[in-house]
Amino acid sequence: MNADFYSLIYLVLDAVILVWIGRMILNTRTIVLKTKTGFRWLVPLLFFTVAVISYLRNLPGIFRVIQPVLLMIMGCMYWFVGSGLSEDGIVVMGQLTRYDHAENLAYDDEDGILTFSTGRKSHALFFAIGQDDDVLKFLRERKLIRTKKKK
Q1: Which pTM does this prediction carry?
Q2: Which of 63, 90, 103, 116 could make a disulfide contact with 7, Cβ separation 3.0–4.6 Å?
């Protein structure tokens, strides 16, 4: 197979990834209460590294420029992906889980950790110190967790 065919495959894959990251950004925009995201710079750094490597590989034709530029755009887009609570559900790095699909939803207000599972997979969101009241209020207003009874 020739290089143009492989270039076309890469462009299709790039388009799919761009749409996927675009959806992640749209889900992120619905967040009402944001969480700490951790090493958010790591994935964009990986995109930029792969872009530099792909530029140095001497790919044929205009694809030599298009591929690295698309990878750098993806890295920049990924920078804006976040996690938190929205009206629609729980957003974990841009992936939306609707509240009716989140099982075993629990919030540990001592450590600021919201845990839930989807099927076999467990998830955890880490909220900053001082967000406890806001998170609990948000979850209780939507009847997602029960109010603790005072002893």
Answers
A1: 0.81
A2: 63
